[in-house]
């Protein structure tokens, strides 16, 4: 009986000790992030000194060099580049577009969707027809679509609390709209920007022509939400109005680029790898401070914080800044291919690619025991107002990663403002709040710490 | 046994029915707020058509008329004004300030603190001494302070997650700094802006001379955080440098103003009153969209939402837009005095005065049974990412309100960005996100609904 009691006491004491130790570590992590991290200064450089980092651009190249250099200042065990061939798409001249209503020409803000072909040099003028879904094309049929521009105008649903849900439900218009409309003989498509706010920014993003033969590709562009509202209104008044747009974008040959990688070797299980990541490429309309400069500097800050706290991880911690998430996902695929080739064992991978806003928690891809484990840590996160632990999509770049057993996590920041900036010209450093960015880094470091300490089940 | 089972089943069914009914009502409230509320348009008018609403100003008067008119469109049972005499302080000409370092004059951004006296017409030039607390004045003593300008430079602590905690710990410098320094013969005070961010905006706010005789009042101003950093740096290089500032603000006679009130009569307990509120006055450097235009339009939207949902409250629901929270709190005191005079029974009062950012939950002033009750509703709020239910300060305007038994609640939005804008020239409509504003209104309406349904304990 005595022995048993002693055992129980020992267990409780060590449990309490673990709890106290973890509470203190999280406090240290958050304090370090909020008082002594370089994340915000790094983002300032990436955004304001380098600018946009579309795959294959000079900015992307500079971003690779800069982040590698910065990682080299942190005293990591290894910093290196991983080669990856990426697509190179260029926007060319600024696009122009008009609603042509009898003799009136009304200018509206558009931008070519990434991957789109150009219009002929003189632009395209055609009747325009409004639809609200890809399915509606079938109902209308070739008779009503052929020779016209298709205008996709299904807005993001305002009533969902998670704005990514609304994004997901509208994304097909941008991703597949041109591909589908071309099948019915459309000459171009104009897509309502994936933005919940009414404003004048057109939002770009990747489009795909799927299996369509090249000669059937039609140009496609996004129109600002205000522009979409106006166009829809004008079409109600005059269903026969025409639309003009001109863009000169091009898909060039693939070019060599890099994933940027840094790591701290594990002291107990150096062969078990835990990844923290963001993607270094951005769209070309702005510097991509939220998408995904934030995720990059937060991931770098996770290792910076651990070094500054002199934390010796049990497992190997690796920061990965992926190239080409936006228009190809080549970085993520290459990383996985290299990992397989090197027979690496990844037990954990996390990505921050939902903006630099106040963190609310994590989405997780894992089995039940690990999900239960994460939820058991909820009280540790409570002082930092981290409360959201749900299953769901974690990150596009870590998606390809497979291992015998792996837990994946996606940082979930507050999503209300994200689509105000996403893929648009206003996704700039000014839209970032330093503290929110730092809290995200601390939240990521905290989950990484806990999995490093307690392993995956 | 049969009877008992029937009873239990009935209880469980009605419990489940209540749960389902409440879930549906919250869903309806949030959907209405996000799709069909006027809150954002109201704030646009208040901010962009009317502008700042400092007590006694033309803007405040216009704000009273505008919000009364808008409430009258909602089909409430009663809309009225409540007279209140308010202080009238005017800033006068734009302030100027220089660091004078030998022959160099370096301009720095300052603004007079609300309630401050003017400098002499030619301004004040004096040696400046940096301190970090009111206590430090005692250590230094009159010998080192007399004839000088005291520069309060204790920054807000970055490591607290709740920025209001950091604000609370620095506020004495602004509120009592001049009062205390005057006792030691200082000729003026310059206070580091209560802002966690380094930028060029000076942040105003109320100062008080306490029981100091009028002839001892000294002028006091806030300096931007960048200005404070620069001044501190320059003082390290040259402890003998001087500082110049000039301001022409004045305290005028009190003037008549109003609280704006609208109500829906209760169908079961018309004598039990539940208040939802914000304050209509703002500081004068900007239109006060976050402080507290947001709280006003959210409170108005709560009643708007109930009317649109055709909700018949059990208790009387009252929206109150208080005047003069910023520099006197007269509206709140007047409301309480009138309530006492009319022998009104308030069972619940809520205020939104912490910005229009994404709501996270509520702070509560109530006894344990009611606190437990609120926490029992947590799962109803979970789909809306509302997770914070804590005890603490609720609102300055509802603070004076007493009743036999009353529950008070303060909306707690995300606090990370609040002090970037608080009392500064950038607290404008552009800093507001429509969805975040609407989510706040829905969150307030939801708590009001639940207390209306289930009463207070």
UniProtKB/TrEMBL annotation, chains A, B:
- Identify the domain of life: Bacteria
- The main location class comes to endoplasmic reticulum
The answer to whether UniProt assigns keyword Glycoprotein to this entry is yes
Q: Does the keyword Transcription regulation apply?
A: no
Q: Which segments constitute the Peptidase M28 domain?
A: 259-445
GO terms in the biological process aspect are: proteolysis
Q: Name one GO cellular component term.
A: extracellular region
Molecular-function annotations in GO? carboxypeptidase activity; metal ion binding; metallodipeptidase activity
UniProt entry keywords in alphabetical sequence = Carboxypeptidase, Endoplasmic reticulum, Glycoprotein, Golgi apparatus, Hydrolase, Lysosome, Metal-binding, Metalloprotease, Protease, Secreted, Signal, Zinc, Zymogen
The record's annotation in Pfam families points to: Peptidase_M28 (PF04389)
Localization: Endoplasmic reticulum; Golgi apparatus; Lysosome; Secreted
Quaternary form?
Answer: Homodimer. The monomeric form is inactive while the homodimer is active.
Query: What's the protein called, per UniProt?
Result: Carboxypeptidase Q
């Amino acid at each position: 009986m005595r022995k048993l009691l002693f055992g129980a006491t020992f267990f409780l004491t060590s449990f309490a000790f673990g709890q106290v130790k973890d509470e203190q570590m999280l406090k240290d992590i958050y304090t370090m992030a909020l008082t002594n991290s370089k994340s915000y200064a790094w983002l300032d450089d990436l955004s304001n000194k380098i600018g946009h980092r579309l795959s294959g651009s000079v900015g992307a190249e500079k971003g690779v060099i800069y982040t590698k250099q910065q990682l080299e200042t942190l005293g990591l065990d290894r910093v290196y580049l991983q080669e990856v061939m990426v697509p190179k798409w260029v926007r060319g001249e600024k696009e122009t577009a008009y609603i042509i209503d009898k003799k009136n020409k009304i200018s509206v803000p558009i931008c070519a969707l990434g991957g789109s072909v150009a219009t002929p040099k003189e632009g395209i003028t055609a009747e325009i027809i409004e639809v609200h879904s890809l399915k509606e094309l079938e109902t209308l049929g070739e008779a009503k679509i052929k020779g016209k521009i298709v205008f996709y105008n299904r807005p993001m649903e305002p009533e969902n609390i998670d704005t990514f849900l609304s994004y997901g439900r509208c994304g097909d218009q941008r991703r597949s709209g041109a591909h589908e409309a071309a099948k019915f003989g459309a000459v171009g498509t104009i897509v309502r920007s994936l933005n919940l706010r009414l404003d004048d920014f057109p939002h770009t993003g990747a489009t795909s022509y799927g299996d369509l033969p090249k000669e059937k590709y039609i140009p496609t562009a996004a129109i600002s939400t205000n522009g979409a509202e106006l166009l829809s209104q004008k079409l109600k008044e005059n269903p026969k109005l025409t639309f003009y747009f001109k863009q000169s974008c091009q898909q060039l040959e693939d070019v060599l680029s890099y994933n940027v990688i840094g790591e701290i070797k594990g002291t107990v299980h150096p062969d078990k790898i835990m990844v923290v990541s963001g993607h270094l490429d951005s769209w070309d309309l702005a510097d991509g401070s939220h998408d995904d400069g934030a995720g990059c500097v937060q991931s770098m800050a996770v290792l910076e914080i651990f070094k500054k706290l002199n934390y010796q991880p049990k497992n190997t911690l690796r920061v990965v800044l992926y190239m080409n998430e936006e228009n190809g996902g080549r970085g993520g695929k290459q990383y996985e291919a290299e990992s397989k080739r090197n027979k690496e064992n990844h037990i954990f991978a996390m990505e921050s690619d939902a903006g630099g806003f106040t963190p609310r928690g994590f989405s997780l891809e894992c089995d039940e025991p690990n999900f239960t484990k994460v939820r058991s840590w909820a009280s540790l996160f409570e002082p930092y107002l981290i409360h959201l632990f749900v299953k769901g999509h974690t990150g596009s770049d870590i998606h390809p990663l497979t291992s015998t057993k792996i837990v994946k996590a996606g940082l979930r920041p507050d999503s209300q403002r994200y689509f105000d900036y996403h893929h648009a010209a206003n996704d700039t450093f000014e839209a970032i709040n330093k503290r929110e960015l730092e809290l995200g880094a601390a939240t990521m470091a905290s989950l990484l710490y806990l999995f490093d300490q307690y392993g995956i089940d």
